[in-house]
């Protein structure tokens, strides 16, 4: 298992030299509490709060058997990267191999510690929140006549028969998504389908485009999305 933090804007990659002993993922449901007459307070679910991913480890000055690789980064430079990402408004990609975690995050908190008797080593606590892109959805125009009895007189209702369609046949729209830098199937499924575990549905629909590795999707790929 390996831990990577990747700044896709600058190309900076930080491979954690010592794996954390554990990773905590905090998921919470978002509620709106309303007070109803004679009932008191009632909670209405509004969706899921942003997930928090946290772990602790350290950057060693010298290589030892517990390190993932021998060519270690300078501990202070590694901490400077975490400090920069904490202050930045840009997300970074967190990848934990051998798990499903491959997502954009905002580095929310990092706390560094120096311990006596271990000169040069830097210990840290790390907390990140999953990143959500905010986009604008395009809404198709409503056909004339579907807005009720007070429709504009200069707008004409177009019947299905006049369009050459049988009344019992509907045109099925195909929804597509163009992959952008930093995307993953997990994130696309969470953002567009509301369920990150449906990344497999997207992959099965687009296996011919993506190829044999679902983790390798490239900017510019046009993916067909399953029904929500």
Low-pLDDT runs: 149-162, 165-172
Largest sheet, if any? 7 strands, antiparallel
Helix % is 10-25%
In whole angstroms, how far apart are the ends? Answer: 33 Å
- Report the C-alpha radius of gyration, rounded: 25 Å
CATH class category name of the largest domain: Mainly Beta
Structural class: alpha+beta
H-E string: EEEEEEHEEEEHHHE
Strand order of the largest sheet: 2-1-7-8-9-6-3
Strand content: 25-35%
| Number of strand elements | 11
* Integer tally of domains: 2
Number of helices: 4
CATH fold-level assignment of the largest domain: Elongation Factor Tu (Ef-tu), domain 3
| Mean pLDDT level | 77
CATH A-level architecture of the largest domain: Beta Barrel
- Shape descriptor: globular
Helix and strand layout, with pairings?
Blueprint: E1 3-7, E2 12-15, E3 23-26, E4 29-36, E5 40-48, E6 52-59, H1 75-87, E7 92-96, E8 102-113, E9 122-130, E10 176-178, H2 185-193, H3 199-205, H4 207-210, E11 222-224
Antiparallel strand pairs: 1-2, 1-7, 3-6, 4-5, 6-9, 7-8, 8-9, 10-11
Helix pairs in contact: 2-3
List the keywords.
228 residues, Elongation Factor Tu (Ef-tu), domain 3, Membrane-bound Lytic Murein Transglycosylase D, Chain A, 2 domains, seven-stranded antiparallel β-sheet, two-stranded antiparallel sheet, 11 strands, 14% helix
